[in-house]
Structure formats: C-alpha cells, structure tokens
Amino acid sequence: MDEKFNFFEFFAGGGMARSGLGNDWNCLFANDMDHIKTKTYIQNWGDRHFDGRDIHDVKIEDLPLNGDLAWASFPCQDLSIAGNGLGIGSLNSSGVTRSGALWPFLKLINDLREEARQPSLLVLENVVGLLSLDNGRHFAAICKKLSEIGYRYGAVIVDAKHFLPQSRPRVFIIAVLRDVDIPNHLQLEAGVEPWHTPALMRGYKSLSPQEHTDWVWWKLGIPPYLKKNALEEIIKLEKVEWQSPEETQLIISRMAPAHLARLEEAKAANGVRIGSLYFRMRREGDINKQRSEITFSNVLGCLRTPSGGGSRPRIIVAGNGLVRTRLLLVSEAAELMGLNDNYILPKTYQNAFKVIGDGVAVPSVRFLAERLLEPMILSIRKRSY
C-alpha cells in the first residue's frame, strides 16, 4: 500500500487497537491517563505521539493533521455486568462516571468539525452491556450525539471467539460522516447474525425514528472458522505450577450441585478437558455465598481485570479421573488476546492482567479493519480525487 491510513487512538490502554490495525496504519495521536497502561503503551509503541493527560484536558490543537479514523475504546467500568451500572452520565451532568469520559471525546470530534477536519470514521468500542443499560437509554444518547455532530452510524457485535479460544463479545459503534456515500457492498438492508445479535436488535428498537434515519446496517460477511483444538494449543499442561490437591478440593467444596455434576462428567471423560473457573458471590436465601463456577467448552470465558483474588482468571483441567486447577498464565492470556510474542506486558501478574482485561482482542480489530474500515476509507479517497 502506497499511502497509510491515519488514525487517532483514544483511551488507548496498551495499544491493542493499534496492534490490530497493523502496519498499514499511521498513529497521529494516542491518549490514556492510567499510569500502568501508559507505561505499557510507551514500551511497545514509543512516546512520540502519546499524550498521558486526562481526556478533559486534550484540545484540538493537540491533534495533528487530519485522521481518517478516531478509535475510542472508552472505559467500560460503569457499563459492564461486573461494574456498578452508573452508565455514561450525560454531557452536562454534574455526576461524572468513568465511562462518561466518552463525552469529552465526542466534544473533541465536534470541535474538529468546526475546523472541517473531523475524521471520516469513528469507532466506539465497549462491552455489550452498553446496549441494555437503563433500557437502552445510554446507547440511544450516544447515537443521538453522533447524529448531532454530523455522523451516520451502526453497530456490530464482534466476539473474539470467532478468532481466538476466548468468549469476548464487544459492541463496536462505527460512524461515518453523513455526506459520505457508503458503498452498497459494505451495508445491508437489515441486521443479520452473528453481527447483529438479539441484544443489538433491542438496542436498535430503543432508538427514536430520527436516530433510525441515521442508522447503517454494516455488512461484515461470513465469520472465520476457529479450529477445534485452538484452546489446547494455548493452555499448557506440562511444566506449570498447579494448585495443591487441598486447594483444589477447597474450590470443589464451594461448587453448587449443577457445577459439581458438570465436573464429575468432565472428570469421568477419557482424555483432558479444559475449562474456565471463576469465583462469584451468589445470594442463597438470606446470605451471600462464594461459589466456584466452571464451564467446559472449546473457548474460555472472557478475561477480566482483576479486582481482588477471587476474580483472578483460573482454569480447571479434568479427565481420566483427575482434576487440577491453577491460575491462568500471563503468556496464555496474551495469546488469548491475539498479542504477538514481542508484545511487552507489565512484569507483575496483577498489572499484566489489568492491561489485558481492559483491552480489545487484536484479531477482532484486524477483522473490522479488513472487512469495513479500510474499504470504507479507500472508497472515500477514491471519490475525493
């Protein structure tokens, strides 16, 4: 490719979106204020275009040239099931939430609009809970704002399980300037699975008629095929530290009957089965109990940011009459995110999983770039010549 695609990367974390976009993309500006993620980003990508200030302090004068794309993986803590449900607030509200950092980002985009140099494309990435929180009010507020600042938009759900043995569904809101002609081969007449899930369809229905007018059903085509043994190629069974039999038995003792039955079935199987293991608080009668919960499948559960010992990612391995448990290795988690061997993560376990748990799966970004973002930008450039 003779000419690179230019982009701004907001809420950049460790730069996993940048990794997914790849070498054909030129980063003009990157921003994040978390010191652990900032250090990780700079170690991997350098500090030439990096700004470590609060998004509220960034001005359009800090954004060089014109970007084809602005990517924003805005904070999810107030949107996810594991979070506190505070949502994104509003642009003028006195109460500030972490996920509400989206508003100053969109204000920056609108300020660029006043100078006629707003990006042709925006991507807003977050957890699927954004669609349903407060009956879709927060999702609708984002769509309304995008419309006000001159964009049409649509959303897709991309689950990392199409590319990696990790279930990690994320919603990507992809917006394009209203005066841009969208090629027919990049859009649909209506939503289709797996990109437009029932949750997304409910979110769409929560929008007003005016917001429906600006909606685009993006076309991503057929998902790739994940080979059946992908998980076995990542999870190490030899030369790793397993928990003691006593520790494993304590975990088993905290399982509810349904999970115990699941474990017994896996334990009795010939061969080895690898499963996800989580600790969760469950209400039982008048008390909260910590329960061990397991799932055996070809993909592990979604990697999360640790917020205490109970939420650290664990695996359980059963079969041939045996059961073993241990923490997931940092190197395994990196592979489950699609990071290459050269990617530098923090040395401490907790910090490494903070970067990973808040990141976007690299192949999901590459897939969007190949199927939609790059063809869209090339079409825009062709029409402008």
Automatic annotation (TrEMBL):
GO term, biological process aspect, one: methylation
Keywords recorded for this protein, A-Z: Methyltransferase, S-adenosyl-L-methionine, Transferase
Keyword field contains Methyltransferase: yes
GO molecular function, one term: methyltransferase activity
Listed NCBIfam families: dcm
Name assigned to this protein: DNA (cytosine-5-)-methyltransferase
Organism name: marine sediment metagenome
